[in-house]
Design a protein that fits this description.
The complex is a heterodimer of chains A (330) and B (297). Chain A has 330 residues and is an alpha/beta fold. Chain A has 18 helices and 12 strands. Chain A has 2 domains: 156 residues, Periplasmic binding protein-like II (D-Maltodextrin-Binding Protein, domain 2); 157 residues, 3-Layer(aba) Sandwich (D-Maltodextrin-Binding Protein, domain 2), CATH 3.40.190.10.
């Protein structure tokens, strides 16, 4: 009896030991990156097996960028976070779960990919929209995300503001320009997908301001040829930052794996997969290869015009900030 | 836990000790102390502790910060919309929910069971689905919206759309509270009233309405409370424009999205207190109505 029991126990130990030898990694990421990371994970698992000789299993947790950040701060055991605004990683750094100097831990501000804001117009561009100036004309309806509830909306707002500034406007003039633009907004989407639905399914508005990477999914979901992508003359560089969650990797002993996982994003393979999902690669070679997807735009960075996203947050989006004034000050 | 054990022991002794020592009045029903202890414990775990956590979070704000957070123009506008639209929706449900309950109780018709089951649908349906369907229906290119919009009636992406979504989610509360009371109502009373020469209107206002009034008010209060907290169905149809169609729960989500936990809980506390006051008023109204209805007859 006892010997049988011992054997059973030993087998159990072996089996569980076998399972735990394959490390698992949890990637906390934003909603629309699901498809990209599905492909990327498959490539990384093969790469890791080849280089480190180990099997890994990668789980993903997706949600609104800030919802994920909140759950990681509250204790979700993600090993790495891959976000679409640095605000979310900054929040985790302040919460002490991500290194304070996270932006220096990986190349290019710890952002292996970027995106930008552009316009989607109805097929054939019936209203002849070419640039930001066309969006403030009377009679044009613009669909955009509420900057209070979505990173997509914050980038759209900052892109418009930055355009005005780049054209030499003063702060007051920029405020007036952005104010005119939001006067043309009949519906503020709650998030990126919500705005896309309003524009394409409800058929409201002449132009949708959204991420470049959203164009691909629009074409995939609603069929090619329903919308045209319009590249404005100037737009914003939106970085997609990544970071290791120090709290989790210390507990699970996955520091090396987490690092390898994020580093591989910068490899040629990683950059190519990103490019196929319409995320702008940092690698110039890959960018050139996908030149048809990524039309050249004059891009400015958040740092250049606003200092940082958190500073932009304070001035523009906090209660009583510039965005509130657009609606409350007449 | 200690409160539970201390109240549990006398209840356990109770059957064995007939005199009960100095215990003044023995209740007819057994286990009052046990159930009270259970009630307090359960309410604490499920309601009071989470809500007190909410209050504690707001204490991280100074009074000034709290005041600014809960009285900024956008937030004030959202209170007006949330409470106003909820009130209108609950009132509409009060009238039409009663009608539905009336028809379901007093009439038989083919497919009645099916209609009866349909009433519960807003309970079961994920609210986001309700919101998306209503928007698809009422938007400018929707089934109904395409006819309404040329007439100048815009429902989707306006405050009116918010009211419609809230009517949808609140309907079952009124129907389901009034229905059983109507079923129990004695038809003989109405027949007696008729034989005594009462008009139909008199029967309704003097016989039926007083009888179902408490249930109606309960249903109204529940529909109203539900509407105040509703989020999923509303955000899709509201359009979410600051000062016009932003509901308070959206303001809270917006603050959370920007990691303003304290500000979010501050607004939530205001909502909670306002809702609690309104529900108290409705409860008081109910008690008053019951006393009034009970006394003269």
């Amino acid at each position: 009896m006892t010997s049988k029991f011992k054997i059973a126990l030993a087998t159990l130990a072996l089996v569980t030991g076998g399972i735990s030898s394959a490390q698992t990694l949890l990637n906390g990421s934003y909603d629309v990156a699901r498809e990209f990371y599905k492909d990327y994970n498959a490539a990384f698992i093969a790469h890791y097996k080849k280089t480190a000789g180990k099997d890994v299993k990668i789980d993903q947790s997706h949600g609104g960028s800030s919802a994920i950040a909140r759950s990681v701060a509250d204790g979700l055991d993600a090993d790495v976070v891959t976000m679409n605004t640095s605000t979310d990683v900054e929040f985790l750094a302040n919460a002490g779960v991500v290194a304070k100097d996270w932006a220096k831990r990986f190349p290019d501000n710890a952002s292996p990919t970027t995106s930008t804001m552009l316009f989607l117009v109805r097929n054939g561009n019936p209203k002849g929209i070419k640039d930001w100036d066309d969006l403030v004309k009377p009679g044009i309806q613009v669909i955009v995300v509420n900057p209070k509830t979505g990173g997509n909306g914050r980038y759209a707002y900052l892109a418009a503001w930055g355009y005005a500034k780049k054209k030499g406007a003063s702060d007051a003039q920029a405020a007036e320009f952005v104010g005119k633009l939001y006067k043309n907004v009949p519906v503020l989407g709650k998030g990126g997908r919500d705005a896309t639905t309003v524009f394409l399914q409800r058929n409201i508005g002449d132009v949708l301001i959204t991420f470049e990477s959203e164009v691909l999914s629009v074409n995939k979901e609603f069929g090619e040829g329903k919308v045209d992508a319009i590249y404005p003359s100037i737009s914003i560089l939106a970085e997609n930052p990544v970071a290791v969650v120090e709290r989790t990797v210390a507990k699970k002993g996955t520091a090396d794996l987490a690092k390898a996982y994020l580093n591989y994003l910068y490899s040629d393979e990683g950059q190519e997969i990103a490019a196929r999902h319409a995320l702008r690669p940092r690698s110039q070679a890959v960018l050139k290869k996908y030149a048809t997807t990524f039309k050249p735009v004059q891009l400015f960075t958040v740092q250049e015009l606003f200092g940082s996203l958190s500073e932009a947050q304070k001035v523009h989006f906090n209660d009583g900030g510039q965005f509130d004034k657009l609606y409350t000050v007449k | 836990m200690s409160s539970l054990s201390s109240v549990a022991s006398p209840a356990a002794v109770l059957p064995g000790s007939p005199a009960g020592g100095k215990r003044a009045a023995r209740r007819v029903l057994p286990g009052f102390h046990l159930t009270l202890g259970y009630t307090v414990l359960y309410l604490s775990l499920i309601v009071l502790i989470p809500i007190s956590a909410l209050f504690f979070k707001t204490f991280t704000l100074t009074l000034d910060q709290f005041w600014v957070a809960v009285t900024s123009p956008r937030v004030l506008a959202s209170y007006r919309l949330t409470f106003g639209a909820s009130l209108i929706a609950a009132l509409v449900n009060l009238v039409f929910g009663m009608l539905v309950a009336w028809v379901l109780v007093r009439y038989t018709f083919p497919g009645k069971k099916l209609v009866d089951a349909l009433v519960d649908l807003p309970f079961a349906l994920p609210t986001a689905v309700a919101g998306i369907s209503l928007t698809a229906l009422l938007a400018g290119n929707g089934w109904l919206g395409q006819y309404l919009e040329p007439m100048g009636i815009k429902l989707a992406f306006t405050p009116a759309g918010v009211v419609i979504a809230l009517i949808f989610v609140g309907l079952p509360f009124v129907v389901r509270t009034v229905q059983p009371v109507l079923e129990d109502a004695e038809k003989e009373l109405e027949e007696a009233a008729t034989s005594l020469g009462a008009t139909r209107l008199q029967i309704f206002t003097k016989v039926i309405l007083p009888h179902i009034m408490p249930a109606l008010l309960t249903g109204f209060a529940m529909a109203f409370a539900r509407a105040i907290g509703e989020y999923g169905s509303v955000i899709f149809i509201a359009g979410n424009m600051p000062m016009i169609s932003e509901i308070t729960p959206l303001i809270i989500i917006g603050k959370l999205e920007q990691y303003d936990y304290a500000g979010a809980t501050a607004v939530a506390v205001v909502m909670l207190v306002l809702s609690f006051i309104l529900l108290l008023v409705i409860n008081a109204l109910q008690a008053w109505q019951r006393r009034n209805a009970g006394a003269p007859a």
